[in-house]
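Backbones bend. Our protein:
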Amino acid sequence: MSAEKRNALGKGLSALLNDSENVLPYKKPTGNNTQVSTSPEVNSLGSVNEIKIAEIEVNPFQPRTDFDEQALADLSASIKLQGLIQPITVRRVSAHQFQLISGERRLRASKLAGLTNIPAYIRTADDQQMLEMALIENIQREDLNAIEVALSFQRMLDELDLKQEELGERVSKNRSTVTNYLRLLKLPPTIQASIRDGEISMGHARALITVNDPTQQLYIHKYIIQQGLSVRKVEEMVRDLQKSRTKKEGKQPEPISFQLQKIQDDLASKFSTQVKLKIGSQGKGAIEIPFLSEDDLARILEMLDW
């Protein structure tokens, strides 16, 4: 992925806050004078800045010490493909030294992905009130996409120590609206990037949220893009999927072996749908390949050279 594409998110998020028009320089006292560094890399309070990973030190008071290596590897792969969706937050210690406040998992995964720079919010020790004012003011902007709004809400919860009800009062939105935006951040990174880039709408995303299985979310998302489905059509697909699942609920199937699970996963990847292997007590069974429409069935049959 080109540097231009990786930086696209940072450019979009800068719309959240006042950006390079108001530079907040680092001031270093030298006797009776003050030297001011006006480096373009560090912009105004609350803006998204690209800073060097080598200049970031981990917060020594970070309570979390264990990180799932596989989860880090998965996030790293996502960052290589989509870029870092949610910036980290740092505090500036000196002209070229920052201390991590939040986002150590994202920082570690970015290092694994080979990034040298990372998008970050830069805070000072006493900027909470200014940050809150900037976020509230800019959340009202009409040119923000749903992911940018969701990230702003999440940032207010994390950094200003607010509850969802309090957040709703600050931004003049009811709690259900705030919750709907925050739930977007639980979707797979690929879908979040698609919302950010305008490939699917907030309505599409809200329908996908009701699907519990990330694999199915990704499949339906891919189908939305390929077929140009309307929000209403996606809502119908999701309702049909949930009805089908309800009918099948009852006796839970017996767990399958690791080898069969891998075969099932490989088939699901190949056909871009949730393939099921049904194995009887004597080794007999069946392969179930579900489809969502006649067009989807035609796609699967073509793959089978039917």
Residues 128 and 160 are 7 Å apart (CA to CA). The chain has a mean pLDDT of 75.
